[in-house]
Amino acid sequence: MSDSLEFQTGLTWAQARDHADPLAGFRAEFCVPPHASGEQIYLCGNSLGLMPRATRQALTDELDDWSALAVEAHFRGKNPWMPYHHFVREHLAGLVGALPSEVVAMNSLSANLHLMMVSFYRPTAQRGAILLEKRAFPSDRYALESQVRFHGLDPAQALIELDGDEANGTISLDAIAQALERDGERIALVLLPGVQYLTGQVFDLKAITRLAQAKGCTVGFDLAHAVGNVPVDLHDSGCDFAVWCHYKYVNSGPGAVAGCFVHERHAHSEQRPRFAGWWGHDQATRFQMGPEFRPTPGADGWQLSNPPILALAPLRVSLEIFHRAGIARLREKSLALTAYLAWLIEREVPQLLAVLTPADPQRRGSQLSLRVKGPRDAGRQLFEYLAERGIVGDWREPDVIRVAPTALYNRFEDAARFVEAVKHWHADAC
């Protein structure tokens, strides 16, 4: 789409750009929370996505089948429950760039991370370490440390933390390569994010996988802030596994059922250890109730329990929206929206805000992480000022305001109004 040379300040230009946006109609498919001034300017899809309007009916349909059919809804419902997780498979695979057999919607992100590490973190005396980022999201850090301790290892020795080597705390590919060159022979697992939650930095999954596998390391990714935000092309990346949630950019509701990817080269790895459950058993013989676990080939083989229908229904709705919009078109709009917001900040309020997220468009997604130039209290005051006026981002300690103009439902007008509000805050403060 347009580059910064075509951007203009003012609501008139932003509204005209929105009017010409081929994806503009998707906004009407979401419930934008109200505010005294009309609708919120919701820039928090990186934390919780808005609810699609069709979600309510999708849930009602399942409740109606439950009330009218009870157990028979597994077979005779509008969307039969027995194969229900298959209803999300194709679109989920398309969203993350995978084969349908490589993905499954199940559990929560942290539960899936633990299940994957049972299979893919296999420390030995010579190779027992995990490479992670120093500022990993806390749940990842907790999970990795607990897995290390479970294997009788000392986290102080077994966790190798990558610190930011670039301005604003981002991590270069060179830093990852150097860490692998230095410690690769003792690293069992590389576990990095697709998008870093605090800075908004996008990581190159394919390049990281190539570097890590050249040193004999297993590779996994936490894509909590990446799926639905940027293309991830998991199959072509070559990584061993990935896990993610669906309540952020994928708009499937608070605590939504999560996602998991296992590369097809592991599809028939029956000898790879795993925590097994009934629903992961081979579908052809599952109901024979035999004592020997025989995993279903592919990601399905890591399932434990039957699918949560009321959690999958919102995911099915959202994935259908993504299928119609197309992740490539959404990325194109996201690049323009984020570039416009960054351009406005740098042009209109450079004395007030610093953008921590990389300037290179290919190294950022929808999120911009902002720091107010001044004491922490000033940043908090701005955050609260915006919230009172219906402009919703989120705050991350110690001093970062995260805003995410999300391509499915945000507008260029939202970016313009955000910057105008920052200017008014400064004027009021003075």
What does this structure look like?
The protein is about 35% helix and about 15% strand. It has about 425 residues and is an alpha/beta fold. The chain folds into 2 domains: about 150 residues, Aspartate Aminotransferase, domain 1, CATH 3.90.1150; about 240 residues, Type I PLP-dependent aspartate aminotransferase-like (Major domain) (Aspartate Aminotransferase, domain 2), CATH 3.40.640. The strands form 5 sheets. A 7-stranded mixed beta sheet has the order 6-12-11-10-9-7-8, sandwiched between helices. Helix 2 runs antiparallel to helix 11 and helix 8 packs parallel to helix 9. It is globular and about 70 Å long. The two termini are about 40 Å apart.
Mean pLDDT: 95
Largest sheet: 7 strands, mixed
Global Rg: 23 Å
Strand content: 5-15%
For CATH, the homologous superfamily of the largest domain is named as: Type I PLP-dependent aspartate aminotransferase-like (Major domain)
Given as residue ranges, the uncertain stretches (5+ residues, pLDDT < 50) are none
CATH class of the largest domain: Alpha Beta
By CATH, the architecture of the largest domain is named 3-Layer(aba) Sandwich
- CA-CA gap between termini: 38 Å
Q: What is the subunit arrangement here?
A: single chain
Coarse structural class:
alpha/beta
Total DSSP helices: 14
In which order are the strands of the major sheet placed? Answer: 6-12-11-10-9-7-8
Task: Provide the domain count.
Answer: 2
CATH topology of the largest domain: Aspartate Aminotransferase, domain 2
Helix share bin: 25-40%
Give a count of the beta strands, DSSP E runs of length 2 or more. Answer: 17
Overall shape: it is globular
